[in-house]
Design a protein that fits this description.
- With 182 residues, this protein is an all-beta fold.
- The protein has no helices and 10 strands.
- It has strands at residues 63-68, 72-81, 88-99, 104-114, 122-135, 139-143, 149-154, 159-163, 166-170, 173-176.
- Strands 1, 2, 3, 4, 5, 6, 7, 8, 9 and 10 form a 10-stranded antiparallel sheet that branches.
- A hairpin with a 3-residue loop joins strand 5 (122-135) and strand 6.
- The protein starts with 62 loop residues before the first strand and ends in a 6-residue tail after the last strand.
- The mean pLDDT is 83.
């Protein structure tokens, strides 16, 4: 919009005085999900025509797995890889009275297929979901049938394009996917 090519805009609001904002809370330098890095540790130094090695990504191996809910129930997950074992091409899960907290219960199934022609720059993914929620809240996560929810993301253009619908309903409030082109 407005021929902008970045996500940050600066505005000079000349008709009002600056706001007095509260100081920003301090946060720790380490997070439980991050990989620690000590500057100067020699792990990687970027110079001319030199790049740092990418971390290796670990995937669950192809096969069928059962995940037990922390409270009760199970989720049975089936993973299929493409001809390249480091690329997951299909995943499906079936929930049977699955609950981690004992008050939200999932039943139903979902599957995700990644188009094998997808690259890291343009990804095509198809979801099929029909997951009812019971317990202290009611709801569902449902995709349009029979084609499901087909999502194409072009990372160079940063555009979201979908065919079909992905609808989540929680206690009567309905949420839908973003509009195409966003």
């Amino acid at each position: 919009p407005g021929e902008r090519h970045s996500r940050m805009m600066l505005a000079r609001l000349t008709s009002r005085a600056p706001l007095s904002l509260a100081p920003i809370a301090a946060l720790p330098d380490s997070v439980p999900w991050g990989t620690p890095f000590t500057p100067g540790s020699g792990a990687c130094t970027i110079g001319v025509n030199q790049t740092c090695p990418q971390p290796t990504m670990t995937l669950a191996p192809a096969g069928t797995w059962t995940l037990r809910g922390q409270a009760f129930g199970t989720a049975t997950v089936h993973i299929t890889t493409s001809t390249n074992p480091s690329v997951v091409s299909h995943t499906d899960a079936t929930y049977a009275n699955y609950s981690d907290d004992g008050i939200h219960v999932l039943n139903g199934s979902e599957s995700v297929d990644r188009d094998p022609a997808s690259t890291g720059l343009k990804s095509v993914t198809v979801w099929h979901q029909n997951i009812p929620l019971t317990g202290c809240q009611t709801g569902a996560k449902v995709t349009s049938e029979p084609s499901g929810f087909r999502l194409t993301i072009d990372l160079f253009a940063n555009k979201f394009n979908a065919a079909g619908t992905l609808t989540t309903t929680i206690d009567g409030t309905t949420y839908t996917q973003p509009a195409n082109g966003t």
